[in-house]
Amino acid sequence: TGLLMLFLVIIGGACGVGSSFFSGLASQNFAFDLRNDVFRRVMDLSFEQTDRFTTGSLVTRMTNDITAVQQFVDLALRTLVRSTMLFAGGIYMMLRLNISFGLVLVCSLPCDLSAEKGRPALRSGAAQAGSGQLGGTGKRFWRTGGQGLCARGL
What we know:
The protein has helices at residues 2-43, 47-52, 55-97, 99-115, 119-131, 133-143, 149-152. It is mostly helical and 154 residues long.
């Protein structure tokens, strides 16, 4: 079983490298096509439209925006592939180990996914109180002589 685990780790690492490589390649090709399309669109602008923007402004906006979209596509593809594989593998292993417990988890999955919408609202107050962030603010408040954080510029 030790060699099998080592083999699976090596296969998983190779798949991770492949996922990163192909998501980077896809995002670069997407950005290349997007740059060409945006360039054609800018070249079709009228003189009145081009007078409103400077050349530097157009180049900066195009570069920054397309790079941001490229990074988003790269991250989304890597996350989508990895999370899908982990999700499918986890469900498969759960069903393989214990079919009745696996079926309970599979049936409860829609409830868990629908509950995700309420979690960020719960995190805002409860997580800060539990993480000690509010305690640090209180200590700062008392060190300032009770004058408040905003009045002292902290």
